[in-house]
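Appendix B. Raw example, untouched.
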Amino acid sequence: QVQLVESGGGLVQAGGSLRLSCAASGSIFSIQSMGWYRQPPGKQRELVAFITSGGSTNYADSVKGRFTISRDNAKNTMYLQMNSLKPEDTAVYYCNFPLAVAAGGSWGQGTQVTVSS
C-alpha cells in the first residue's frame, strides 16, 4: 500500500508563499496522476490541482496563476508552490491519487496552511 506524507505547511501573511511537499512510498507513484486537495475550516474537501504521470496540469479557478503543481518521479515526490496567498487559502492540504479518492480511499494527516490577513 502506498503511503503519502504531506509537509511544508505553516503560518504566513497574506501575499506570502509556501511550498508543500508530498512524499510517496511505493513504485506506482510515477505512473499515477496525483492531486492536491484542501479542506477549509467547516467546509468540504476540494481538489486544488492535479498532475498526470506525463506532467499535464490542471487547477481550480480559485488558485490559477498563483499555485503551481509539479512532481519529481525520481524522488517519488510531488510539490505545490503557493504564491500570493490569501486568507481564503487557509485549509488543511492533502495529497492523494484521484483514482483512490474516487474509490473512497484513505487520506493522510495533511498539512495545515494558515494565511493571516
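End of appendix B.
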